[in-house]
Amino acid sequence: MAKPLIVCRDLSIIYNQGKANEFKALQGVNTDIFEGEYIILFGPSGCGKSTLMYSIQGSLPPGEGTLLVKGDDVYSYPPADRVYFQRYVMGIIFQQFNLIPSLTVLDNVALPMIFCNADKATRNRRAQSLLDRFGVGHVSHKITPMLSGGQQQRVSVARSMVNDPKILLADEPTGNLDSVSTQQVMDKIDEINTFDRRTVIMVSHNAAHLNYAHRVYYLKDGRVVREVVNPQRKQIKPVREGETIVTELEQLARLYPYDNVETLRVKSLVNYLTQDYTFDQIVRMEHAIALFIQGKIDRDAFVKSLVAPFERGGVEVDEKEARRMATISERMMNRADDIRRFRSKKNNDGVFFSQHKLAERMKEFLTGEYRIKLSKEQANNMTEMIADRVTGVTMEAELNQRLMKGVRSGGLGLSERESDDMTRYFEKVIAQGIDVSYKS
Length: 440
Known about the structure:
By secondary structure, the protein is of the alpha/beta class. The chain has 15 helices and 9 strands.
C-alpha cells in the first residue's frame, strides 16, 4: 500500500509557548496527504488553515506532535538542507502575489533559479516557457504593476513552478481576483495537479473551489473537524472496499461548508419531509428534528412541536401530517442506527450482525415501506444491491439503475418512478447512518 507523502500526527502549533499569553493556532491535527492529491484546507478566517500550510512548507515548527514530509522531519534538517527542501520540493503561490515591482515579469519568474546557480540563458528559457504556458508570455517584458490582478497571479503561478517542485502550496490564490481571473487561475492550478501530477495543497474559504479537490479538510478553531472526499474525482488515497461511502452529505457539506455533521443530517431529513412550507416553518422544523435526532425529545413531544400554532413557537403542521413525519423519521433513524453500528465494525469485533444480515434487514424494511412482494430471485438481487450500496461499492446512480434492470440482469424490474422513489428514500436512510469523516 502506498505511503502518505505528508503525515501530521497530533500536530500543534503554539505561539509564546510556556508564557501567560500562550496560544495554540493548531491543536491535535492529523492528516495523511498522498502524492498527486489535490487537497483543500477549508474554513473561516483564523481557523488555522494557513498555519497548517506554512508548517508543511517548513516555516512553522510544531510545538507538539509530528510532521513528516516524504518520511522526513524537515525541522530536523540542517539549515542548508531545509533551504534546499523549500527551494526544490515546495512551490508556493501567495494571495498578495509578492512580485517585485521593479523587475520585469520574466525576471520575476526567473529569480528563484538564480539561487540554483542556473545561467541566465537557462533561467530565461525556463521562465518564458512557463509564462507562455500560463497565458502571459506576451507581457514578459513589462514590469508587474502594468499587469491586471489575474495576470499577476498567473505570473505568480509560473514562478511557483520554475524550480519544478513536487508539492505546490497555494494560500488563498484567488482572494484578490474577479470571477473571470479566479476561474483562469483555478484552471491552471488544476492543470498542474492533473497533467503535471504535482501534489497541490490549497488554502481556501470559498466553497466554489471544493469540487477541484480530491479531499477537503475542514478546520475550525485550530482543529480538523472533518475530512470529506470528492465523489466526482477518482481517489488517490488508498481505501479498503467499503471503508468510505459517498452520500448526499458530501453534497450538503459543499452547500453548507461550515455546518457540522449533525446539522447536515438534520437538513437531509428536513429536505425529505418538507414540501410547501415557509422558510420560518422549515427553520423551526429543523430545530425540532435536531432535538428528535439527538434524543432530547421523544416522539410525542416531536409531534406536539410540529402541531403547535406558529405564534406559540410551533411549526403549525396538520396533526395527521405531523404523525406521518414522526413515523418516517423514527423508521429512518432506526434503520440508520443499523447502518451506523454495522459500519463501525472495524472498531468493534463484536458487531451484532454481518453485512448480509444488514442487507436482509434493509430489504425487509424497504419492501415493507413500499409494499412490494418479491420473488426469490428478486429478493436475492435486492439483498446484493443493498449490500453493495451500504458498503460503498456502488454509488447512488448505480443503485437506481440496478433497481430498474430486469431480474435476470440482477435487478428488480421496477419502473423509473418506483426506482427513483426507493433510491431517494434509501439514500436518506444512509445519510442518517453515515459520518462524512473518513479519517482513520
